[in-house]
Amino acid sequence: MKVSDLFRYKKPEIRALHLTWIAFYICFFVWFNMAPLATSMLKSVGWLTSDDLRLFAIANVALTIPARILVGMALDKWGPRRVFSVLMVVMAIPAIAFAFGETRTQLLVSRLVLSSIGASFVVGIHMTAMWFRPRDIGFAEGFYAGWGNFGSAAAAMTLPMIALNVFGGDDGWRYAIASTAILMALYGVFYWFAITDGPAGTVHHKPRKVSALEVSTWSDMIKLIIWTIPMVGVLSLLVWRVENMGYIDAGLAWVFHGVIALIVSYQIIQILRVNLPILRKGVPEDDKYDFNSVAALNSTYFANFGAELAVVSMLPMFFEMTWGLTATTAGMIAASFAFVNLIARPIGGLVSDRFGNRRFVMLAYMIGIAIGFTLMGLMNSTLPLFIAVAITILCSVFVQGAEGATFGILPSIKRRLTGQISGMAGAYGNVGAVCYLTLYTFVTPSQFFFVIAAGAFLSFVACFFWLKEPEGAFAEEYIVSSVDLELAADQKAGKL
Q1: What predicted TM-score, i.e. pTM, was given to this entire model?
Q2: Using one digit for the tens of pLDDT, what is the confidence trace for 226-268?
Q3: Which of 79, 108, 156, 160 has a 20 to 30 Å separation from 359 between CA atoms?
Q4: Around Cβ 324, how many Cβ atoms within 10 Å?
Q5: Inside any domain, residue 485
Q6: Which DSSP state fits 496?
Q7: Of 48, 163, 160, the residue nearest 106 (C-alpha)
Q8: Residues sharing a CB contact under 8 Å with residue 13, sequence separation 6 or more, in sequence order
Q9: Helix axes 358-377, 341-355, angle to 10 degrees
């Protein structure tokens, strides 16, 4: 696939790509509509504090974790068109509730529910994988994610001006946020009728069960259980922080911890229910895949997308307070971190396609992230602003490129399980964000950036030992196993 192909709108796969990245763009615009308006909220709402907004930032990524898991399952069952459309319409409700929230609790709960919109990412990943071949998937996924992710930058650049100049007044931020929700709902309805799940004649290979990820060996099942626990267990960090700030008492906090433990236990039971019969029967050699690669890519997304979510949530306020800028100016500068999504993510995917070794590209990007955030950790008010902006952009190039490289690999691991594998990796991006943002409430911005740099280096080590080059990563078509053919026959016969 060439860059010039992006302008061939009559080709159905190119049209599908553009329709899908726009959907993701709108979702990200809504998802990150709070950060650029944070200072406006503080000025117009007397009972809000900076600590409240930091808590809302954590809540803004919290439920994305279980949502991405559930959405990954839904994708494998119902396909991306239906899931994307319904998600956009439903998530408009908590967005409007947040816009007109009159209490701290209402703002917290609505923000928490709205965080589920972050699951939109894996929907588009699945849709793109259904439209493009393995040899082109890196660039296609990178373009989708890069231009869609730009929604967060667009929100940072435009929402302060919309709130001030279009709506105005103390409630300008409320109407600005509400307008983004209405736009998302309308596009969700349009998307339902405008696209299909892959080209005509495409077979949607479904897994045996969607309640848990299938694995190939007994040891892989144990690894899956270990990697499953943090995806929901990390929400205990949010509960602890909410209790610590006085939103809930200790008794209610223990109730929430108990619910989280029950959910984790249920997930483990589902893993056993799905995989024990499969493993007892034996997995054919042509249907096996290595879970270590999934684990390695979970770590990369923890370190790159988790970092992006965390940094985007705090960067406008960081620039505003460190260099004494206005909210609009700080938002514009902070948007530079996400702005490079337009180029860096597609390039990351393109490099992954063209280099001929997706594993090496992944390793190079993770080292780049570690260096980039180390440099950001050295930024302070004595540093000229233009140098700080340059460092921020350089770091972002590696972060976004690594995200593109991650999803240049994932669809080739096991096509039948793309929804669940992508959902798991995507969830780990949010696990990273929750961990990083929780830590941010206790450390300085410089220390925060150094911690993220350390996380990227640890992911590099994980990829070095665990990540394997996927079989058929540059093939014309995805590998279809004997189990895939059997399940497709059952599906056609109405047995699935």
Answers
A1: 0.76
A2: 999 988 888 888 788 888 878 888 898 999 899 999 989 989 9
A3: 79
A4: 10
A5: yes
A6: -
A7: 48
A8: 131, 132, 199
A9: 150
Kindly report, residue by residue over 453-483, the tens digit of the pLDDT.
999 999 999 999 999 987 765 666 666 777 7
CA dist 123 and 300 (Å) reads 19
Report residue 143 as tokens: 């373009």
The pLDDT tens digits of the residues spanning 429-446 come to: 878 988 898 888 788 899
CB atoms within 10 A of CB 476: 9
Longest dimension (CA), the chain: 69
Cα–Cα distance measured from residue 308 to residue 396, given in angstroms and rounded to the nearest whole number: 8
More confident residue, 484 or 171: 171
Domain count, the chain: 1
CB 207 within 8 A of CB 214: yes
- C-alpha separations of 488 from 76, 313, 374, 484, 496 in Å: 13, 43, 49, 6, 9
Residue 9 tokens, joined: 């709108």
* CATH number of the domain bearing residue 184: 1.20.1250.20
Q: Which domain holds residue 144?
A: 3-196+210-491
Rounded to 10°, the helix 64-78/80-99 angle is 150
3-state secondary structure of 201: coil
Q: Give percent above pLDDT 70 in the chain.
A: 94
Residue recorded with tokens 């602890």: 240
Q: Where are the beta strands (DSSP E) in 316-438?
A: none
Residue 136 lies in a domain: yes
Residue 201: inside a domain: no
- The three-class DSSP label of residue 282 is coil
Tell me if 34 is assigned to some domain. yes
Cβ atoms within 10 Å of 380's Cβ, excluding its own? 12
CA 371 to chain centre: 22
Average pLDDT over residues 350-361: 82
The 3-state DSSP composition of the chain as helix, strand, coil percent (nearest 5) reads: 80, 0, 20
Burial 367-378 (b: 16+ CB within 10 A, else e): ebbbebbbbbbe
Q: How far apart are CA 256 and CA 239, in angstroms?
A: 7
- CA distances 114 to 6, 31, 73, Å, are 32, 7, 19
Contact 385, 334 (CB under 8 A): no
> Could you give the CA distance from residue 281 to residue 26 in angstroms, rounded to a whole number?
45
Check the CA dihedral 48-51-55-60 and report its sign.
positive
Which residue has 């433990």 as its token pair? 261
